[in-house]
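batch job 7 of whatever, protein = Heat shock 70 kDa protein 12A
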Amino acid sequence: MLDSEAQAQGVAAALGGGSGVGGRRAPVPGPYQVPVDVGRLEVEGGVEQLFQPARNVVLPMESVGVYGFCGCKAKNKMKCDSRWEIAASETAPTSAYSSPARSLGDTGITPLSPSHIVNDTDSNVSEQQAFLVVVAIDFGTTSSGYAYSFTKEPECIHVMRRWEGGDPGVSNQKTPTTILLTPERKFHSFGYAARDFYHDLDPNEAKQWLYLEKFKMKLHTTGDLTMDTDLTAANGKKVKALEIFAYALQYFKEQALKELSDQAGSEFENSDVRWVITVPAIWKQPAKQFMRQAAYQAGLVSPENSEQLIIALEPEAASIYCRKLRLHQMIELSSKAAVNGYSGSDTVGAGFTQAKEHIRRNRQSRTFLVENVIGEIWSELEEGDKYVVVDSGGGTVDLTVHQIRLPEGHLKELYKATGGPYGSLGVDYEFEKLLYKIFGEDFIEQFKIKRPAAWVDLMIAFESRKRAAAPDRTNPLNITLPFSFIDYYKKFRGHSVEHALRKSNVDFVKWSSQGMLRMSPDAMNALFKPTIDSIIEHLRDLFQKPEVSTVKFLFLVGGFAEAPLLQQAVQAAFGDQCRIIIPQDVGLTILKGAVLFGLDPAVIKVRRSPLTYGVGVLNRYVEGKHPPEKLLVKDGTRWCTDVFDKFISADQSVALGELVKRSYTPAKPSQLVIVINIYSSEHDNVSFITDPGVKKCGTLRLDLTGTSGTAVPARREIQTLMQFGDTEIKATAIDIATSKSVKVGIDFLNY
């Protein structure tokens, strides 16, 4: 038997092990109750050790299964061959990846109870604050906007005031995601106002101003995103990304509050607003956190009142809106019978043109009625039915599979979000490559720097023509070249633009005497092909997954979904497998859905965890099972260090608000501070915190002082909770003896 000093050092046995959220097994008869008096724990090798639980612990039936405390195959929790210790100390660790024990000294904590799920989250979730209005901001790659709804009139969604400016033939219910800073780096303007002001500047003066567009993609493409990540303005100067995103969100905040105040006839308080910001589902966790940090800096909400802001996933928002669609509010591409006056025998473009006419007629009305009913299409869905949401925007395409849960019609994410950088920007890049081929990459890159405003003009002209591309188009598309392009090219090369076109051997692009590039319809369609092919290929891969078989509907949403070429490609590839639905006002689908999500965040019930989460622990060292380099000997006990104790696995289903709860005890009664480090990985099969791809993403530091006059039990209980299911993940540690607690949001930007 071990002496009492060893017990005091925390080599105490635990009462069960890490089934966690994912470790449920077939239940066994009756709950296991362990008495408070001293018992025996058998371990491999015949050694017996005393254990003394802090209190009676009832093991939930589902947490008693084939996995023992350390992951061994013990048939009974009482026969596990190991115990865990999480290293802790009065000082924070020196390295995210060093051994917890080696960096933190001899003190530590050991578990007191098995992991289990707390389904009743009412006691852990603070009461929802009452908001007067929900304002959603759709922060897009190419265009952005906001919409709102008063909580007393949830059936009315108001889209923001009509924007000043705009382009011929382009809807301006949103504004371009463009921002302009003065030469002193102060905010000047956003959207059309920024673009038009920049365009009107003298070319030499324009070089001093900082103009940024389509900068949202930086959050998707930057692998090591931090608070100090830079963006590059059109003039080549660097500026902090966090500042730019904060400026943009601050602009929307001011616009929305001004509009609300005008409607109310008095000053509208920010504290009365619940804010919702949309982000792509395929964004990695650091990018989602970055948007929240930008919102804090913009003054939308404060970190102390973080619940006032919801980060909504774009395809989820679209899904929420689509469930309200009535027949007259959508086009069904795969329909054989007439739907909304559109027959499946018509061309895709014709059906959509008719829908756009309907929208244009109703453009003056910025209030959309959302009936408090389930739409006709949605009413056809039964328990367990699946559908795909394809959110095709400017920068990315998100593919999400949802399953319906009755009777409330709640949504369950069935397969984790996939996709990639296959948005409409891909068409712009192809146009740029075409210009490289005709005029030379060296000239185009130089022109962007020397004449940045003229380059913006050229891309605006292309955007308008890009939207006119259609499968059945026969007449050419003309793209006006700015005069400064023609003039600068002659100075740069010594010959004319027309000469360059003749020399380039690009047959399908001609020069027009009116100063325009004349593209054949086939030439324009060719610019779309690589991006659309990527989307179709990604969808084909998705439809191969077992979880995605028997999909009933495919909802095509987002700004790029307006492109008839994309509609035709999706219909041709998948029209025989499922019904393909496009909401009429497709560019505003996500915005409206985000408002509905803010009004009822609980509509999304189950998500897939994008990452594996766990903590760094020590296991009892087992010869032949654990690597020799992980051996650590303490007080005569052999430990395996750096073990990754998994809370939840990547791609695992997680209910909204679901908690994983564990109890620990300090290894030394004199310990003043406990530090628990949280780690994440994109991989499921993680064994050690030193494995490739494992990153530290949180620290719980709990002060254990202040117990004078309070009776502290011999085995002091520290409860650790991790709450999953929201777009943010929170961890909490509670000292049961003093009711002290510490909370932390999982942090991907500062470690």
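notes: The chain is about 25% helix and 30% strand.
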